[in-house]
Fold:
Amino acid sequence: MLSVIPVEGIAEVREGDELATLIAEAAAAQDTPLIDGDCVVVTQKIVSKVEGRVVDLDPDDREERERLVESESVRVLRRRGDLIISETRHGFVCANAGVDLSNVNHGRAALLPIDADRSARHIRDALRARHGVGVAVIVSDTFGRPWRLGLTDVAIGVAGIAGVVDLRGTHDALGRELQVTEVAVADELAAAAELVMGKSRSVPAAIIRGVDREWLREGSVRELVRSPADDLFR
Amino acid sequence: MLSVIPVEGIAEVREGDELATLIAEAAAAQDTPLIDGDCVVVTQKIVSKVEGRVVDLDPDDREERERLVESESVRVLRRRGDLIISETRHGFVCANAGVDLSNVNHGRAALLPIDADRSARHIRDALRARHGVGVAVIVSDTFGRPWRLGLTDVAIGVAGIAGVVDLRGTHDALGRELQVTEVAVADELAAAAELVMGKSRSVPAAIIRGVDREWLREGSVRELVRSPADDLFR
Structure:
């Protein structure tokens, strides 16, 4: 059984704040202190804020916005109206290269962390060093999908947990070798966390308790990034 | 807080079995009886089996397999080696039109339910009529994604729950109207359920407890299906 616990009561953050401490203290204050083996999911927005990845942007200046999106992209895949679908330096394909005007002050825009694996590892290391707890960390963001409507949260950085779990060589319940082999557990954990975080409430983190111990290993979001050469739809 | 509870102990099913009863009894037997407001996630495979959506297929006959996939498709989008990415009658874009050889007997293949909203509604109605409990039901399947590696579970049918929750008009924590508005909660619930169901264990259903009551309304998987005209990548 998994429990998905919202971490509430984290106030507006500033550049340089230590997220590990804010999350550990908020979790303890709501009587769900972090324990070994937990997976902590943290939204990109709050990570970008503490890392200073917030820039000026006049929301009404479309050209300025497009220039910013292009500077955050290595390749533009599609444009329609205000929407740009592009590939970021990390290899993510998403709307507007992750440049986001919601939940930041007017005239400002949040950019994706430069290396969200590193962001996750920093939080994980700080939770171990300062709070004596061994947890996995996922940095999540909200992406659209082709073919399906609605947005889901996915992992953009991981530490201490697999991005993808490979079931190759295991057998199904009837003893046949499995055809379907690789499960994107970090994306599924990010999606589960989103269900308790919502979009309009101030819940920038969630704890997932009961994660399969076999998934707790050094991981990287690179496990989740399909290379352009391997992609049939780019 | 959400709890994601695997429903264990459901034996191999046959065509005509009543899934509602199997799930309700298995949940009660493990001391987690269904309660009003639960969301029950059921895998496509077990739904297809009780609905008789299983056909003969020689796994070594590639031509026969391709003919079957094409007969389950309205449009083939890409081919690479053994892999066909196509659009099904339901509007889903997935590998091999959902035709699946795992967890069925050798020489057999499971097809997608003809109408998995109806499948979900049947389970929901039977749980209410026979077991007196009001739950939402999601039928899930495991799909790949372009751009990202690894598979995640998504909803292919829903009953008593929204496919997509529209946050348009609500405001973010700073009072700005939200840019990001539509969350695919049924897909996120399916993904959360997959985390406790695994692929090789005999866990064909999960209970998600604590779902936001505002999401419990008549829904349809059509909310999640992007029309080809609206799709930039088809």
Q: What stands out?
A: The mean pLDDT of chain B is 93. Chain B touches chain A through 70 residues (CB under 8 Å). The longest helix of chain B spans residues 116-131. Chain B has two domains: 3-52+113-225, 54-111.
